[in-house]
Amino acid sequence: MAVIDGKWCRMESEEMPYSDLSFGIKMEKLLHKEISKYQEIIVFKSQLFGNVLVLDGIVQVAELDEFVYHEMMANLPLNCHPDAKRVLIVGGGDGGVAREILKHPSVEKVVVCEIDEKVVDVCKKYFPKLAESFSDVRTELVIGDGIEYMKDQSSAFDVIITDPQDKIGIAEGLHNEGYYNSMKRALKPNGLICSEGKDMYFELSFVKRLMTFSRKLFPKVAYGYAVTPSYAPGHIGFLLCSTNPNTSFKEPLKTLTENEMKERKLKYYSSDIHRACFILPNHIKEDLYPD
Ligand code: SAM
């Protein structure tokens, strides 16, 4: 849970790294606080970060750098797929990943499966630039558990993005082999997945576990990262898997021109950033790519 202490909001959680670390942000104003059926939801305004959404003591979105995570979660898989038409996002009730997906002309349908309707309501009010994706005719919002939803899907999506930000509580089941198996079944031929891949320092053993079981299921698996000051480790990872053995995550199939980047208002993602995000420090590479 977050601890509101005078002007400070301190992220504290049972989940690493916040179980051993307190990450505090000074608040200008507390905008919202409630306990929904699933989690504690806090929104506050901060001078440094803008509006910030905190769920169960973990920062999910901050206006300062939300575009980093959302652009990467959308563009890494979509620019490695030749023609993604149907995309599923599990979690992501803020609408940020959907907003970036909808910028891709090939996309005909985006399903957002979010367990907590209250997150969507709060984001519509305090993060309207993210939640605007919910009013696009191509977006379908399903309120429900992504684990159950996935079990019912078969050859339905070109790309599946899992955007939970936590690894305990309601999101725990989104990080195990059973769920990855369901995603594989839900993909169309040559489909791709992109999951939030935690950070490389505090969560390396967790990332290794994800990569180990993913390699049993998918012929191509890769890990990249991006710089995100609003998440305590300062960066966040992305796990990408493809059912197509010819996929090369490190070299996007679709590269973007300067004009395309301007039209899509991309502030972080570029084709160069795409290639660079998979270049890992030696000590991490040795752990994640032992062969
Ligand atoms: N986009 C954010 C970011 O920048 O990091 C993170 C997304 S955040 C809004 C994660 C969402 O996943 C939460 O709204 C949470 O309710 C949802 N979620 C967690 N477990 C889920 C599950 N099992 N099924 C569907 N949604 C889930």
Question: How would you describe this protein?
Answer:
With 291 residues, this protein is α/β, with parallel strands linked by helices. The chain folds into 2 domains: 2-62, Spermidine synthase, tetramerisation domain (Spermidine Synthase, Chain: A, domain 2, Roll), CATH 2.30.140.10; 65-288, 3-Layer(aba) Sandwich (Rossmann fold). The chain has helices at 66-78, 96-101, 117-126, 128-131, 146-151, 177-186, 204-217, 258-263, 271-276, 282-288, and strands spanning 2-5, 8-11, 23-26, 29-35, 40-46, 50-55, 58-62, 86-91, 109-114, 139-143, 157-163, 187-196, 220-227, 235-242. It has a 7-stranded mixed sheet, with helices on both faces. The chain has a 4-stranded antiparallel sheet with strand order 4-5-6-7, with helices on one face. A hairpin with a 2-residue loop joins strand 6 and strand 7 (58-62). The N and C termini lie far apart (40 Å). The model has no long low-confidence stretch (mean pLDDT 96). Bound molecules: S-adenosylmethionine. Residues 55, 60-61, 66, 69, 90-94, 96-97, 113-116, 119, 145-147, 163-165, 170-171, 174 line the site of S-adenosylmethionine. Residues 15-243 form the PABS domain. The active site is at 163 (proton acceptor). One of its GO terms (biological process) is spermidine biosynthetic process.
